[in-house]
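Troubleshooting log. The previous structure file for this entry was overwritten by mistake, so regenerating from the original sequence record. Sequence copied from the archived sheet and checked twice against the printout by T.R.
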Amino acid sequence: MRKKAILSILCLAVAYASLGLLPTVAKDKKPNSKLQSMLRLYAYEKSTDVVSDVSGIFDAKAQRVTLKCELKNMTKKEIHGVRGFLRFTTFFGDVITDQSLETTVALPPGQLVGVNWDIPAERFTPQALETFKKTKLDQMRQIWYPKMIAYTDGTVVKE
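Regenerated output below.
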């Protein structure tokens, strides 16, 4: 009787696994593109500021988000410019916001460089801005999608 129960459980487990219904253990994600393996980006701090206009009136559009990020050059050549976007999601994969980022900071081979981006509120939907402001970075997933890397020697790699 016990063998039949174990066999039944195993059959159900195989059936659920084949349908993708069993939970999976999250593993360290490997870069899924060539550019992601060449350049890593990670936001480690965020803050929001309110910017006033000349008359001193504050509105939702006067807000801005500052992202402090680390860029790491994983190549053997100096990078001179980067363009891509950083996606912030919930742990369940629901997209909070996609932010386009670009910099011309020099990134020596194998080095880590800090970059700050000021993102105006207009680049967020109102709901995304509120969600982004109230959610801590460690409660969001960050996915970096580089689109272009320009090297100091003039070589450009595009996705």
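The chain is about 20% helix and 40% strand. Archived copy saved in two places this time.
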